[in-house]
Design goal:
Elements (H helix, E strand, L loop, with lengths): L12 E7 L3 E8 L5 E8 L2 H12 L5 E6 L6 H9 L4 E4 L14 H14 L11 H32 L2 H7 L4 H9 L9 H38 L1 H4 L6 H11 L8 H7 L5 E2 L9 E2 L6 H17 L1 H12 L4 H26 L1
Helix pairs in contact: 1-2, 4-7, 4-9, 6-7, 7-9, 9-11, 10-13, 11-12, 11-13
Length: 353
């Protein structure tokens, strides 16, 4: 679908779908006129998906589906259509015009989704399943465990600061990792008052929770490493790329052909330069705050690692610094170059396989 510039050239009908947790609303829109042919609302279940296909069959054989949220509420429907080899256009968020008098309904949103697909010059296919979806699930679980573990460690630190002096004395001079081990192994003393006893009980609970979540995150990282090594080991051979960064890049890229160019991949990563100058000459660019922020964070991690350990990157930074570039501008340039190299690597590997 990435090579098609107009859906009207290849289909007769576009089925727009507005997805929700319990129901999906669909509208069949004529690809030539944009007129609404029919509407339907079904349950978000296997029977509902089958009914949607029957609904589409009643209107056209040459059709495309425009689905909002193919990785969320529309994931089940997207998988169902993929098994039937249907053409699916991914719509993250339709560019909806201002609604007159605040008009909104699920059928209206389905119609807008179909018409949005008809108006777009470039199309994105839904992210793949299989290894890509497994990595996505593991990354989400690991991120949740890391964040919760960090919160628990911060709470331990704060409690130690405000703890009764006999308890504080046991932690004096310790770094946070040692504090966690000390707190997790603390025992109660019958001579303590209620405040001291309660503080120790909570400290021990938080410390053990932090350690348990850290172990869980480590297990998820091992599983991520196994999948990445089996799927794209060439990514791990690149400087500054570990299993978490590689998994994040693979989840955003998904499969060959989904992102139509290296420029589009850079825009997806929020690494495409945005002009910030006025006048006849543009010589400054500002931070791009759009795109996939997890992918942008992965690129940032690669940049920091290469600046510290990669000689070629260090030479580049020194040269650009002498040219008057700021540290932020240099990092933005590096992100753009890395996005280009990663895209070429991902697409080329598939071509030569």
């Amino acid at each position: 679908m990435t090579s098609v510039t107009d859906l009207r050239e290849v289909v007769d009908v576009v089925i727009g779908v507005d997805t929700h947790v319990h129901t999906h609303s669909a509208a069949a829109v004529d690809a030539r006129t944009g007129g609404v042919l029919d509407e339907i609302t079904v349950e978000a279940s296997a029977d509902g998906y089958a009914r949607l296909v029957e609904f589409a069959n009643e209107h056209a054989a040459l059709r495309a589906w425009a689905i909002e949220g193919t990785g969320g509420h529309g994931a089940g429907l997207t998988r169902h259509l993929a098994r039937r080899e249907e053409v699916v256009v991914e719509l993250d968020r339709p560019q909806r015009p201002r609604r007159r008098n605040g008009a909104k309904s699920d059928p209206l949103d389905a119609i807008r989704a179909a018409r949005e697909a008809l108006s777009r010059a470039k199309f994105g296919s839904p992210r793949g399943s299989g290894d890509r979806q497994a990595l996505s699930v593991l990354l989400a679980a690991r991120r949740s465990a890391v964040n919760a573990s960090t919160d628990a460690q911060r709470q331990v630190f704060s409690l130690v600061i405000a703890a009764p002096e006999p308890i504080r004395e046991r932690f004096r001079g310790q770094k946070l990792p040692v504090m966690i081990r000390t707190a997790a192994s603390m025992r109660l003393n019958s001579a303590w008052d209620t405040e001291t006893t309660t503080t120790v009980v909570v400290l021990r609970s938080l410390a053990r929770r932090a350690r348990m979540l850290a172990e869980e995150a480590a297990q998820h990282e091992k599983a991520i490493r196994v999948i990445v090594r089996a799927w794209r080991p060439d990514l791990l051979a690149q400087p500054g790329i570990g299993p978490i960064v590689a998994a994040t890049v693979l989840c955003a890229w998904s499969h060959p052909g989904r992102v139509h160019s290296e420029a589009a991949f850079a825009m997806l990563a929020g690494a495409a330069p945005i002009p910030a100058s006025s006048g006849q000459v543009t010589n400054r660019h500002r931070l791009n705050r759009y795109g996939d922020r997890q992918l942008n964070r992965a690129l940032h991690t690669i940049v920091l690692s290469r600046i510290r350990y990669d000689q070629a990157t260090q030479t580049y930074v020194a040269r650009r610094t002498t040219e008057g570039k700021t540290t932020r501008e240099i990092k933005r340039c590096l992100k753009r170059y890395i996005a280009r190299d990663l895209f070429r690597l991902l697409e080329h590997q598939h071509t030569t396989a």
